[in-house]
């Protein structure tokens, strides 16, 4: 387990910024963590362990240091992975973090929830609500109408274009959805 | 001017033929005149002497003819009377015809009657008269009466005696004479335009007099005359060929009449236009122009009229401005008179004007757009063959829904809408058939032009408002932000359903920028012109209207505007900002919206109820009504009402409530409790306390949804009025009968659960209240500091600029 | 007819017969009297097998419940048989009374030649009998018997019959019948056993049949039979055959039970709140949708876990901002519950030894939105080394076990487990619990608790382990905070356990309708260890002689004294090693420092500080403790 180095940090922050925009500073700087037994658990920080990036309270990090690297499986919230080729991508576990800070949201009609949870992209017909001012390739967090975060992806169309689309055009390309907890528990 | 010279050399013979060739000449001169009007003005002012010389000889007359004249006039009037109504019926543009069950149409006759009632003073029915104008008319009437009385003493004109008679008339007599003359000519004209059309020329001459009083009089009387005698069609002058070819007596006479009238009218208009630059005549000239424009927009020289009027629409003189405004409005109102071209021109001109002045104009200039009216079914009438569905669709595609809030995929509404549109179609269809209106294509073209011009203007204003001061401040009077913005926003709000989807994007962008202005402390340091809270609220409202009216495509969630509203509630000061705007915003943004996400709704509920503690009763009433709406709508927020987390926290990531949070989604309001309600129960205003108790008991019995159908606005209104005469002790019964049913049995409940609640958490409430007011205090503190900072920075910038300038000067 | 007259006469005679008999017999034979009515109902049961002449009289007689009547007329009918059979017949009245039991036998003897043609009349007779069920099975049993020309009264199959059965494919109905019979016989052995057959024979037969019918291996059946009386055993085994209801736990980090229930109801899931003892449990009756694949499940609004798995966590009662260890965490049901109770504050070490189960563990933790966990992959016994002794507030040890409580979940347990397995489990569990205790900090303000739980019902894995821990460490049992469940065994077969073990809780499928489960909650009293432990931090199970034998001593004495005495013992050896604690502490540090990698300096320091602090506390504590203990001892001596 170690802190991220320079370009890893940039990679991670870019990805996050795509989804949370300026809330990134809430996540990184102004985050007062509540995990950890100490009176003041300190802030959250990013740690790299076995190619995975974790978003952890500092006090947890402090206590995790006496666990052997090969024995440490996970700590805090995993938010993403680095691929062999050094690319970074967010995993479904980061959903809670993203949903709390999301800049762009899409609400799915109950009818289309399931298809999304089986790993399909979001079609216009399935969109119940969408935040305005989404540009193409913005990161979008997908909610159910009951505000249950279901997953995230990036926008295939800007909000304005969405109006003109036909109902089965793709609005959002899926990155991750909570269905993965069942479908691919082992890859997580 | 050539003609003037000619006149000068041989004054004695003024044969009736003179006008004829005069017309020919003047016709060639027309362009010349239009090019340089001031010449004409200059000339006319120049040789009033000579003119008066031979005009005034018409002054005296013989009794004998006078009587004959009178009875003739009477007869004329009678036959006019019986002629007129028949004319009216074929011209139904004044009002939509009533269609009876058996399908034939009745046109309103009353529309034109007043015009005939007293022809001299123009008809008030057609031209909406401002007070000033009415007064003027009355004055003129009186004058006319006087003249009539005097005329007994006078004789009808006789060319041969004129010369020697006029010699021995002194100046003031002359003026008197002129007055009489004017009146008399006018009446003559009115009596029988065709026969003594040439009197107009003389009147014109008179009104070129040096004496302002005379001139004014002349103008006015001419106005009256023209308004009456100008025909319902546009005069086209006969071409040479037509001149050559042989025509019947009547036709010749007609042509002569028309040409004379036309030339005179032209001269008159030119005169007006030239005169309006002189302080003395300004108002009169403008009034005349306006009245003409309003009365005879279809007639020739409209564009010059328009130009003049529009130029004046933003003058400092409010009388003038009002006049022009009303004139333009009336122009917009009844397009029937001119089939819309005038509208288009006017709008375009105004657009130009705004552009030219870089948006630093008086709001009225844009206000007039509000009175524009667009017929949305034009498109349909064209595609009436297609089946309704497609028609509806494409008409919606082109220009929003018909009702402002028509929901997508709502069958019932759709069908109803189809019905409406269909019936409306039929009506309009055979209305067109009946009225000889031009084909819908044409109309649509005009409309689209108008629309584009209007929105162009609006967007220009918006864009301009978005720019930072540093660029606008070069324009004088940019000190107080954006005069046009408010009316512009209203306009957009009104026509939001007509906005093309392509504009939508950057429109929203502008609005967002505007609404976002000052929401961050950072902005004040950059020298943005800060908008008032109400303006920014308006921005939000407009954004919502626009979105809602184009919702049918997909349901867009205007997150950022919610954020703005959330912060605006914080900045809102009951005294400083209009509460009704806030109320409207609450209504449109929070109550009308179908669903919110839980966090946001909770955040708003919390903040609203918090601030309803420090709002005035009216505002807090509106706020509470909104809170109620929200609570009714999303059930999850109800656990703000019960004290325990119910064995689980839904507050999500944020563990405790952060009252300062900028983003409602981040405030974690669900972790808090609506303790404010308990305080509000003790509110001095019974209405407020009762609704507070209603909300706090909502969880127990969801059945009662009274008051939920009252919109914040209504609530606000009714309380703000009530506050005028509000005496807490006496007010209870009024408040109670104001409340809906269920309210009256409420106070009992209030009492009960009030004192039980109180004995429960008396001290807790006290504690919380204390900290809460600390909070409020330092929020206000922040506000004050912020504003101070703004002021200082602004003044600093100014000082910088000033120093720079000085430097430049010194060099 | 003669029948009725006879009957009347007999009736009259009968009426005057009892009094004199009673006067004599009443003092001597109370016991027999009780037995008597015992028998009477049993013989009324056997009456149908009588010949019809006596039959109708029989009916009227027992229609008016005249006990003595029965006896009397029998007596005069069967004088001879009496005389032959009555064992010691000096006192006729005593005889009369005893005959009840005797004539049973004799009748049965006689009935052996009565053949199946009588059965239809018997049916009539049965109609008026009140215990239908019993009747039924008798009937068929009797039919069977008749077919086989056997005695209607159940008797154990002979060796050669068993021989035959072994060759034949098992005749299930027959097995079932026999099991029922044996159970019946065992339920009141004295009366129903066939003479000569010992209880043991019956039990062995029962074991054989059960294991062959339900497919248990002999060991398991043996163990179960040892633990339960036969009737309950049957209930238990039956309960093992059917599955427990599906339970789910609301994740209070994300939603509330009310809301969740609402949503699921809308999805067509038919559910109810679990029961009064859980605020977060829901029990699912049926569901249109797969309950494990709803959007809510994926969103982590609830966790599918058995009701029994709530218990240890509720017993642990974690507090916010605590340091808690879950020694065997996978698949994370309990872990996430703990985290939820901690409201995701504090720190929660979720340890799991098997790599294979780590995936599901982490997945669940993330799905439930738990952010305060450190998932690590150690053998639980190493944890004290890793996390440090006395370093956490609470430990949940849901020990790996034989799984004999969850047979309903996996059938394989029935056959797979052997005595050896249990031994291994127990051994491992003892090591684990010592490790767990060592981790806990006795001086923690909020905590200092260890919860030990297994899904086994084996005493060796539960009470034995706790008892061992009680001896090995300075811990005491505290109530689990669960108001239901059966108290643990205090004495079982040969061995007796510490009396406080009744504070532990056992849960059974047939009683609580949840998996067989055991929960014990320990409070750590002090961080000291017995001197014998110093050499090897992990408690080796075998040694620690002096304590065990002292315990044996204790067993001799009765509980009250034993307890006090034990306390004294504990005090004493505490006093002994108090002196050496400091030294040992340093020694421990020494070796730890040796082990430590350079990267871990700062932790060592922190630990150092902590230990310093603790020592301070202890030194203070020591003084008065010495004083107190001295006083105690003097008192004790005084009392002796």
Task: Describe the overall structure.
The complex is a heterotrimer of chains A (188), B (811) and C (640). Chain A is of the alpha+beta class and 188 residues long. Chain A folds into 2 domains: 2-97, Roll (Nuclear Transport Factor 2, Chain: A), CATH 3.10.450; 104-183, Archaeosine Trna-guanine Transglycosylase, Chain: A, domain 4, CATH 2.30.130. Chain A is built from 7 helices and 12 strands. The N terminus of chain B is likely disordered. In chain B, helix 11 (212-229) runs parallel beside helix 14 and helix 27 (533-549) packs antiparallel against helix 28 (559-571). Chain B contains 36 helices and 3 strands. Chain B is elongated, with a radius of gyration of 34 Å. Chain B has helices spanning 2-9, 18-35, 37-46, 48-55, 63-89, 113-117, 131-151, 159-167, 171-191, 199-207, 212-229, 240-244, 249-275, 279-295, 302-312, 318-333, 341-357, 364-367, 378-382, 388-398, 411-434, 440-466, 469-472, 485-495, 501-516, 521-525, 533-549, 559-571, 579-591, 598-611, 617-633, 676-680, 686-696, 712-724, 728-738, 746-810, and strands at 98-99, 105-106, 556-557. Chain B is mainly alpha-helical and 811 residues long. Chain C is globular. Among the domains of chain C are: 161-241, no CATH class; 245-305, Alpha-Beta Plaits, CATH 3.30.70.1170; 308-524, Rossmann fold, CATH 3.40.50.150. With 640 residues, chain C is of the alpha/beta class. The model of chain C is unreliable at 1-116 and 532-598 (pLDDT under 50). Classes of the chains: A alpha+beta (188), B mainly alpha (811), C alpha/beta (640).
């Amino acid at each position: 387990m170690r802190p991220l180095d320079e370009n890893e940090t940039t990679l991670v922050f870019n990805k996050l910024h795509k989804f949370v925009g300026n809330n990134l500073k809430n996540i990184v700087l102004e985050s007062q963590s509540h995990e950890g037994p100490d009176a003041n658990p300190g802030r959250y920080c990013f740690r790299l362990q076995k190619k995975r990036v974790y978003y952890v309270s500092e006090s947890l990090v402090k206590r995790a240091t006496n666990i052997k690297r090969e024995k440490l499986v996970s700590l805090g919230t995993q938010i993403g992975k680095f691929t062999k080729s050094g690319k970074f991508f967010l995993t479904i576990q980061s959903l809670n973090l993203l949903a709390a800070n999301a800049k762009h949201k899409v609400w799915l009609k109950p009818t289309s929830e399931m298809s999304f949870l089986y790993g399909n992209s979001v079609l216009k017909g399935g969109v119940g609500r969408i935040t305005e001012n989404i540009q193409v390739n913005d990161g979008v967090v997908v909610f159910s109408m009951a505000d249950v975060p279901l997953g995230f992806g990036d926008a295939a169309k800007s909000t304005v274009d969405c109006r003109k689309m036909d109902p089965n055009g793709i609005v959002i390309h899926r990155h991750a959805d909570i269905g993965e907890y069942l479908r691919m528990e082992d890859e997580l | 001017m050539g003609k003037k010279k000619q006149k000068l050399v041989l004054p004695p013979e003024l044969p009736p033929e003179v006008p004829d060739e005069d017309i020919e000449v003047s016709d060639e001169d027309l362009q010349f005149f239009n090019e340089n009007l001031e010449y004409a003005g200059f000339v006319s002012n120049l040789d009033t002497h000579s003119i008066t010389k031979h005009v005034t000889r018409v002054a005296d007359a013989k009794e004998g003819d006078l009587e004959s004249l009178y009875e003739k006039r009477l007869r004329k009037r009678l036959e006019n009377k019986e002629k007129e109504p028949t004319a009216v019926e074929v011209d139904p543009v004044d009002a939509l015809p009533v269609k009876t069950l058996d399908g034939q149409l009745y046109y309103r006759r009353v529309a034109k009657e007043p015009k005939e009632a007293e022809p001299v003073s123009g008809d008030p029915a057609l031209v909406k008269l401002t007070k000033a104008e009415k007064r003027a008319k009355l004055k003129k009437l009186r004058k006319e009466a006087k003249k009539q009385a005097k005329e007994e003493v006078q004789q009808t004109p006789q060319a041969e005696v004129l010369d020697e008679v006029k010699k021995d008339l002194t100046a003031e007599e002359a003026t008197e004479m002129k007055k009489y003359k004017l009146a008399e000519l006018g009446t003559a004209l009115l009596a029988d335009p065709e026969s003594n059309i040439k009197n107009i020329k003389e009147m014109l001459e008179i009104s070129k007099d040096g004496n302002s009083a005379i001139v004014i009089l002349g103008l006015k009387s001419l106005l009256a005359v023209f308004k009456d005698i100008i025909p319902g069609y546009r005069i086209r002058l006969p071409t040479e060929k037509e001149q050559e070819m042989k025509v019947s007596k009547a036709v010749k006479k007609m042509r002569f009449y028309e040409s004379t009238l036309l030339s005179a009218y032209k001269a008159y208009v030119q005169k007006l236009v030239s005169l309006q630059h002189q302080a003395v005549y300004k108002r009169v000239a403008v009034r005349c122009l306006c009245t003409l424009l309003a009365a005879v927009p279809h007639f020739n020289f409209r564009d010059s009229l328009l130009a003049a009027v529009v130029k004046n629409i933003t003058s400092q003189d409010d009388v003038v401005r009002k006049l022009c405004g009303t004139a333009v409005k009336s122009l917009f109102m009844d397009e029937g008179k001119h089939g819309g071209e005038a509208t288009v021109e006017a709008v375009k001109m105004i657009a130009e004007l705004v552009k030219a002045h870089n948006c630093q104009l008086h709001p009225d200039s844009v206000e007039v757009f509000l009175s524009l009216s667009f017929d949305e079914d034009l498109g349909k009438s064209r595609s009436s063959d297609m089946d309704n569905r497609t028609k509806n669709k494409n008409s919606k595609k082109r220009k929003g829904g018909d009702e402002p809030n028509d929901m997508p995929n709502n069958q019932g509404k759709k069908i109803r809408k189809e019905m409406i549109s269909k019936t409306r179609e039929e009506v309009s269809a055979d209305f067109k058939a009946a009225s000889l209106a031009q084909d819908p294509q044409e109309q649509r073209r005009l409309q689209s032009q108008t629309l584009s011009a209007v929105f162009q203007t609006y967007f220009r204003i918006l864009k301009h408002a978005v720019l930072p001061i540093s660029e606008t401040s070069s324009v004088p009077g940019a000190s107080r932000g954006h005069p046009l913005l408010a009316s512009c926003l209203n306009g957009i709000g009104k026509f939001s359903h007509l906005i093309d989807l392509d504009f939508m994007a950057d429109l929203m962008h502008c609005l967002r920028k505007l609404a976002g202005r000052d929401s961050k402390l950072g902005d004040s340091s950059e020298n943005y012109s800060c908008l008032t809270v109400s303006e920014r609220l308006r921005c939000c409202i407009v954004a919502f209207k626009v979105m809602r009216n184009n919702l049918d495509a997909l349901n867009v969630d205007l997150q950022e505007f919610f954020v703005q509203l959330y912060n605006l509630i914080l900045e809102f000061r009951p005294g400083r900002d209009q509460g009704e705007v806030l109320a409207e915003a609450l209504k449109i943004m929070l109550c009308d919206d179908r669903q919110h996400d839980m966090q946001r709704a909770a955040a708003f509920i919390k903040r609203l109820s918090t601030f309803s503690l420090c709002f005035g009763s009216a505002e807090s009433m509106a706020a509470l009504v909104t809170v109620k709406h929200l609570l009714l709508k999303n059930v999850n927020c109800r656990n703000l009402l019960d004290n325990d987390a119910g064995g689980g926290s839904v507050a999500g990531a944020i563990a405790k409530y952060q009252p300062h949070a900028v983003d409602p989604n981040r405030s974690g309001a669900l972790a808090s409790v609506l303790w404010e309600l308990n305080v509000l129960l003790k509110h001095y205003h019974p209405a407020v306390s009762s609704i507070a108790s209603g909300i706090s008991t909502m969880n127990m019995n969801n059945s009662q949804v009274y008051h939920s159908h009252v919109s914040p606005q209504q609530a606000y209104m009714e309380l703000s009025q009530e506050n005028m005469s509000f005496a807490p002790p006496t007010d209870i019964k009024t408040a109670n009968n104001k409340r809906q049913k269920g309210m009256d049995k409420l106070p009992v409940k209030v009492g009960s659960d009030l004192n039980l609640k109180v004995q429960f958490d008396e001290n807790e409430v006290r504690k919380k209240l204390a900290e809460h007011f600390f909070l409020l205090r330092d929020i206000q503190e922040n506000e004050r500091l912020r504003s101070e900072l703004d002021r200082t920075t602004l003044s600093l910038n100014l000082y910088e600029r000033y120093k720079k300038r000085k430097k430049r000067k010194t060099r | 007819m003669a029948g009725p007259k006879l009957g009347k006469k007999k009736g009259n005679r009968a009426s005057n017969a009892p009094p004199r008999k009673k006067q004599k017999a009443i003092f001597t034979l109370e016991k027999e009297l009780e037995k008597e009515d015992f028998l009477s109902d049993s013989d009324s049961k056997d009456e149908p097998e009588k010949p019809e002449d006596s039959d109708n009289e029989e009916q009227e007689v027992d229609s008016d419940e005249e006990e003595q009547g029965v006896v009397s007329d029998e007596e005069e009918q069967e004088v001879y048989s009496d005389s032959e059979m009555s064992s010691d017949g000096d006192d006729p009245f005593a005889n009369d009374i005893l005959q009840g039991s005797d004539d049973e036998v004799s009748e049965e003897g006689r009935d052996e030649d009565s053949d199946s043609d009588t059965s239809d009349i018997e049916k009539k007779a049965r109609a008026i009998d009140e215990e239908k069920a019993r009747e039924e099975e008798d009937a068929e049993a009797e039919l069977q018997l008749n077919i086989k020309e056997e005695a209607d009264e159940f008797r154990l199959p002979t060796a050669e019959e068993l021989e035959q059965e072994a060759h034949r494919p098992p005749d299930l109905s027959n097995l079932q019948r026999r099991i029922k019979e044996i159970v019946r016989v065992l339920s009141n052995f004295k009366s129903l056993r066939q003479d000569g057959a010992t209880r043991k024979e019956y039990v062995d037969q029962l074991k054989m049949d059960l294991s062959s019918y339900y497919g248990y291996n002999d060991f398991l059946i043996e163990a179960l039979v040892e633990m339960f009386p036969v009737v309950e055993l049957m209930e238990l085994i039956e309960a093992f055959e059917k599955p427990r209801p599906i339970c789910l736990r609301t994740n209070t980090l994300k939603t509330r039970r009310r809301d969740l229930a609402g949503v699921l109801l809308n999805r067509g899931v038919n559910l109810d709140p679990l029961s009064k003892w859980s605020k977060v449990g829901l029990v699912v009756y049926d569901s249109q949708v797969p309950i494990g694949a709803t959007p809510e499940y994926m969103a982590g609004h609830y966790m599918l876990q058995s009701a029994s798995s709530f218990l240890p966590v509720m017993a642990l009662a974690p507090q916010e901002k605590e340091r808690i260890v879950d020694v065997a965490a996978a698949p994370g049901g309990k872990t996430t519950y703990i985290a939820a109770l901690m409201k995701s504050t504090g720190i929660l070490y979720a340890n799991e030894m098997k790599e294979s189960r780590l995936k599901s563990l982490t997945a669940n933790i993330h799905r439930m939105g738990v952010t305060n966990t450190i998932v690590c992959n150690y053998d639980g016994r190493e944890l004290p080394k890793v996390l440090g002794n006395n370093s956490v507030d609470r430990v949940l040890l849901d020990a790996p076990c034989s799984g004999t409580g969850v047979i309903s979940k996996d059938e394989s347990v029935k056959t797979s487990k052997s005595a050896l397995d249990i031994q291994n489990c127990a051994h491992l569990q003892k090591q684990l619990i010592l490790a767990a205790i060592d981790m806990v900090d006795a001086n923690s303000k909020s905590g200092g608790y260890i919860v030990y739980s297994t899904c086994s019902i084996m005493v060796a894995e539960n009470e034995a382990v706790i008892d061992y821990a009680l001896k090995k460490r300075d811990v005491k049992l505290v109530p689990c905070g669960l108001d239901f469940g059966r108290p643990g065994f205090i004495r079982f077969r040969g061995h007796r356990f510490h009396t406080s073990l009744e504070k532990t809780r056992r849960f059974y499928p047939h009683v609580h309708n949840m998996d067989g489960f055991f929960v014990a909650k320990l409070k750590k009293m002090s961080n000291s260890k017995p001197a014998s432990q110093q050499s090897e931090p992990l408690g080796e199970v075998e040694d620690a002689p002096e304590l065990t034998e002292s315990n044996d001593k204790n067993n001799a004495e009765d509980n009250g004294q034993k307890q006090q005495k034990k306390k004294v013992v504990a005090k004493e050896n505490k006093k002994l090693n108090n002196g050496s604690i400091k030294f040992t502490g340093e020694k421990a540090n020494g070796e730890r420092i040796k082990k430590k990698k350079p990267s871990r300096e700062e932790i060592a320091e922190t630990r150092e500080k902590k230990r310093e602090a603790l020592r301070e506390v202890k030194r203070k504590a020591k003084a008065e403790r010495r004083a107190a203990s001295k006083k105690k001892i003097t008192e004790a001596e005084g009392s002796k």
